[in-house]
Q: What sequence folds into this?
């Protein structure tokens, strides 16, 4: 049975919120597609879209594709990457950091399933904000926004992103002059509305240095990139050599079965060392 995850936000189509993401069984073919995206993507947001298109079969009734992954909110994309990290690499991951006070390095175990996730508000993915009598709509940033920012690299990314997310209540885009005229309090109100409306994944953890007791923080990157291409090539080579299977046959095997076969290969090697 394929793994599923309930998105904290979801994709709205025709008034229906599609929230149940169904992962494909993690076979070698899925791993190969993930590895290919890792090699070919022009940016991390583009890589995330490629990975989600390879690993997720559908969201609700919507078939997954790179375009649909682009359409998803940033919070949903982070959440799915964390869930996929559990399927691929297990729940626990170790981070290494340095104490800001004594500069000693120490390790910290993060349990992916314990990362705090806040669901979107009832108004998601768009909410209305009143700016001194002018009502504007602000939407949650998406993967497409992230990809655009990486491709264009504007000098003021926060301001440009805000402009992309704003429309009038009639659906018209707001011009640069309106965005430039926003006061600091207006910007704070808009940023707060985006933050409170959209799903949020808490990737900052409080830590205590085991050496000096200093209390600090450490950030967890949900967008893991771990060079799976090389490992996968080596696994295919080992299984093809010992079992004489073709590459398509090996790629059809689930991750769990592949690991078991590789364990048997290692045992066989050990007998003749």
A:
């Amino acid at each position: 049975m394929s793994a599923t995850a309930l998105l904290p936000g979801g994709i709205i189509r025709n008034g229906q919120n599609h929230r149940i993401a169904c992962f494909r069984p993690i076979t070698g073919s899925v791993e190969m597609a993930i590895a290919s995206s890792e090699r070919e993507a022009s940016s991390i947001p583009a890589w995330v879209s490629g990975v989600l298109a390879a690993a997720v079969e559908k969201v609700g009734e919507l078939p997954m594709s790179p375009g649909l992954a682009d359409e998803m909110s940033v919070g949903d994309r982070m959440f799915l990457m964390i869930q996929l990290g559990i399927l691929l690499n297990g729940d626990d991951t170790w981070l290494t950091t340095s104490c800001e006070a004594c500069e000693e390095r120490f390790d910290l175990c993060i349990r992916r399933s314990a990362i705090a996730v806040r669901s979107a508000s009832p108004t998601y993915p768009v909410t209305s904000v009143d700016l001194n009598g002018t009502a504007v709509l602000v939407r949650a940033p998406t993967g497409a926004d992230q990809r655009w920012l990486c491709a264009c690299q504007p000098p003021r990314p926060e301001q440009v992103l805000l402009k992309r997310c704003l429309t009038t209540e009639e659906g018209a885009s707001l011009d640069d002059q309106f965005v430039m005229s926003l006061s600091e309090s207006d910007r704070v109100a808009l940023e707060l509305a985006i933050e409170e409306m959209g799903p949020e994944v808490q990737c900052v953890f409080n830590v205590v240095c085991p050496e000096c007791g200093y209390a600090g923080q450490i950030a967890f990157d949900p967008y893991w990139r771990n060079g799976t291409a090389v490992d996968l090539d080596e696994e295919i080579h080992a299984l093809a050599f010992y079992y004489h299977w073709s590459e398509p046959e090996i790629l059809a095997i689930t991750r769990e079965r592949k690991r078991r076969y590789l364990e048997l290969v290692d045992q066989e090697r050990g007998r003749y060392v």
Observations:
- The chain has eleven helices and 13 strands.
